[in-house]
Amino acid sequence: MALSETPLAQLPDTVQTAIDKLRGEMGGDGPLRMMVGLWVDQLESLLEDLRLGARHGDGGQLAAAAHRLKGTCALLGAHDLRARAAAIELAGLDGLPRTVEEDVDRFAVEARAFARLLESLR
Hints:
122 residues; mainly alpha; Four Helix Bundle (Hemerythrin (Met), subunit A); 5 helices; elongated
């Protein structure tokens, strides 16, 4: 089934718009499916980097993982997730406030839910 035929009703309008734009820019469904698949496949590894960076006080590791997640969330139109990733990135750069582990946990729950929605696009 082509991505254009995939039911996207459960995705937020910003995500649908971003996917339509990416489909056009990338020249069709194949490259878009690959990008979505890479994000979904790498998500758990990046979330683990976030958790480890927060747990061990490694702001650089935390910021780097959050930065990667932030960029992809922005490309996919997941603006709330992008904003959460940006806040985590800043926490890593600014000295890790004590709530960063809670922020990482909340982000992980939301990112996994988003990944489940994106699975239909693979």
